[in-house]
């Protein structure tokens, strides 16, 4: 594994580490100031502060006791100093808005990262739930 692949992979793994500590200050630092994030239900947050605030809210409520596990990280570099990282994830321990336990979820996280003088920073992120058996929306 090249140094760049290892560095990008570490950012993706740190995403989950911050999530599991519910440390949204550290989580937000993984993102560039002008980063964007689209979550699994299509909410589109623009900028590090908006990303942080949205995650602070959900980690005080539905994700308060959740655990995120990342696996199968795949990294490629379409151009110098830009990385595309995809990873599978499993989310456990989350609850509905009413507080009822929810089943384990699986998904794929896409992060686009840029190399900066201080390391790799997420510039764009999109999260997708995997819904088994669903091929597309009915016509």
In summary, what is this structure?
With 139 residues, the chain is an alpha+beta fold. Helices cover 27% and strands 42% of the residues.
Q: Topology, pairings included?
A:
Blueprint lengths: L2 H19 L2 H6 L1 E8 L5 E3 L1 H13 L6 E13 L2 E11 L12 E12 L2 E11 L10
Parallel strand pairs: 1-6
Antiparallel strand pairs: 1-2, 3-4, 4-5, 5-6
Provide the CATH topology. Answer: Nuclear Transport Factor 2, Chain: A
Helix content: 25-40%
Beta-strand percentage?
35-45%
Q: Tell me about the largest β-sheet.
A: 6 strands, mixed
Radius of gyration from the CA trace? 15 Å
- Tally of DSSP helical segments: 3
Coarse shape? globular
Low-confidence stretches: none
- The domain count comes to 1
Instruction: Tell me, rounded to a whole number, the average pLDDT.
Output: 95
CATH top level label: Alpha Beta
Overall SS class:
alpha+beta
What does this molecule look like?
With 139 residues, the chain is of the alpha+beta class. The protein has one domain (3-129): Nuclear Transport Factor 2, Chain: A (Roll). The protein has three helices and six strands, in the order ααββαββββ. It has a six-stranded mixed β-sheet. The chain is globular, with a radius of gyration of 15 Å. The model has no long low-confidence stretch (mean pLDDT 95).
Question: Features of this protein?
Answer:
139 residues; alpha+beta; Nuclear Transport Factor 2, Chain: A; six-stranded mixed β-sheet; 3 helices; 6 strands; 27% helix; globular
